[in-house]
Amino acid sequence: MATMAHHLLAKTTTDEILNNFKTGSWTYGASGHGTNFLRTGTPADFPSPDAAFYDSVNKELAYFEFKPETETKRGILTGVGQGIAYLEKCNLSFLIAPKLLAGYDLESYLTDLYTHQLSAIPTGLIIYDNANPKNVRLVKNVTSLVGTAATPRTVTVERFWAKHQDLPIPLFHLILHYYYLKKVNHIGGDPFEILYTTKLVPPSVLTTFAAVPVQDVSGVNIKTLSGRKDIKHFEKRINSYLRLPAASKPAELARMQAQIDPRTPGDTNYSAIRKNYLSFVKQMQMIDSAGELTERGLAMYHLGLVNGPTSKLFTDYFIKEVLTTGHHLDVLLDFDQMRRRMPTAPISNLLSSMEADYATRGFIKTNPGRVAGTTSTVGFLKYEQILWKNIGLMDADHNVQWRRITEVCSLPDLL
What we know:
Strand content: 5-15%
Helix content: 40-55%
Distance between the termini: 15 Å
Largest sheet: 6 strands, mixed
Order of helices and strands: HEEEHEEEHEEHHHHHHHHHHHH
């Protein structure tokens, strides 16, 4: 429960902080920036913040470190150090801390520290009230970006939550397996490329013209997320090829070979699968920006190796990591709140309203070509809903299963 409580408090405070910047109530720097902030994903690289906002107009990135009221004084000082360390990777940082710490006047202590000893450093202090965490106060602002903190940052503004698309849990573990093999020097080169060419779509499929089922580390066929059939990549393309007239087959075969060759530039089957799978694994902080297995990734890998990638324990920890590290808990909370506001609305209308709300609040990037009141081609939260329903976080009627969420969030922390 400590993990869930920490997550809920961090969401409450950072939501209010983003709103204060977006509305112009708060600004930072000499030019009064902040209204262009969008919430973005946090990196797996050490050290990793609790939240990140990015301004793509001014190319400025802000990191936030949240500390709960259950933190120790030593932990608070660690947070101060984290905020300073973040400046190697961002333009400005903030510590979010409670007013009181077990009766101790933490606000007074930190205010003195930040306004005197840390006054020249682009790291700020935000205090929240213990009884009402939505009440946040900007105690020490960042007034100028100096030194390396003034360097423009380029960040791909992604969803702040881990984007999931058709990745069964055992296949998630298989990806970690190949990165583990690279970590212990059992394989060389790009782990995902090796996984793709040996397990997902080996070149032999264009000589046998039969898609192969993907197998987990134990040699068991991996099922789709719904469990209805085996995962077989490139199967539809091969079946379409087999139905072609003989005269059309040579050209199509050449196109298929290019589609599964990792060396082919542009949009291919390989590049699409790589992007879909690795963006999720990286936002789950299992792999860092250098393509190395993180401590979190290593812990998850061993958990699945010892207990099995289809075991209840591994599944439960996967769900917990999706909810917390992957920030799906944030989205489920907002979805549930929107559903309570619109209890009789069709799900399509509800999701359209939520998408518009997210764009307004700076949770997702606004699509300038989007017609108001319409849904996107893919559909907002389409794949997330598929995942939630298949792992028991949402029922068929779109009711969030809070008992299940509380159960998995009560597990001991992975790290």
